[in-house]
Amino acid sequence: MADSKKVLEIIKAIGAKMEEKKEYLTELDQPIGDSDHGINMARGFGAVEGKLPGLEGKDIGTILKTVGMTLVSTVGGASGPLYGSAYMKAGMAMAGKEEMDMDDFLSMMKTAVEAVEQRGKATVEEATMLDAMVPSLKAMEEAAAEGKTTKEVLDAGVQAAWAGAGHTKDLVATKGRASYVGERGLGHQDPGATSYSYMLEVVAGLM
Fold it and tell me: Is 26 exposed, middle or buried (0-12, 13-18, 19+ CB in 10 A)?
């Protein structure tokens, strides 16, 4: 499914996507957060890109762990620790591996979701990135169990992620900065669920 070189290519492409969507993600954050989600994500992945040349030839676990550590130290707000934990835990799940198949990918994603749940002390239906992450993982696990191709599995995940991100408009946030605005947050899409959906879209496009 993917080797270390492909993972580096994907990480670089995610950085380009965060830069491209920086203003949109920041706009989403204005009514419910600190108006900086897109700026923070673009900055974090900009710092990650600087580390990529030194990661050539390293195993997938080392690459993902380095991404996570970089995001924690460069992305402000809640997103840094949450995405940082997700990538670091995913890296631990892939420790020493040079290649990743669909089973590896799904167990890595499961680990990442658990890391966000633990770090954010959140669950689904609370208008957070988990509202995109959890349904997308479930959709991918189901598609894989049905014996679908890599592309079909990832596409199912992307579709579920975007549906979940859209659903956050109907939820009242109870976690993070968005919880401060309460019901005024209704009608606003969660920026973290949106940035995650973009990331998975990039993965699906390159696999």
Answer: buried
User: Which two tokens mark 30?
Assistant: 């204005």
Where does the chain have alpha helices with state H? 4-20, 22-29, 37-51, 60-74, 79-93, 102-120, 130-145, 150-167, 191-206
Residues in the chain: 207
Place of tokens 């204005």: 30
Confidence of residue 176 (pLDDT cuts 50, 70, 90): low
- Among 119, 102, 104, 12, smallest CA distance to 60 is for 104
Question: Residues 132-175: pLDDT tens digits?
Answer: 999 999 999 999 999 999 999 999 999 999 999 999 988 766 65
Closest CA to 67 of 42, 93, 86: 86
* Contact present, 177 and 202 (Cβ < 8 Å): no
* Distance of alpha carbon 13 from the chain centroid: 13
pLDDT in tens, 108-144: 999 999 999 999 888 898 889 999 999 999 999 999 9
Residue 135: half-sphere exposure toward Cβ, Cα within 13 Å: 23
Burial of 101 (0-12, 13-18, 19+ CB in 10 A): exposed
Would you give the end-to-end CA distance of the chain in angstroms? 7
> 59 CB contacts (<8 Å, ≥6 apart)?
4, 94, 95, 96, 97, 98
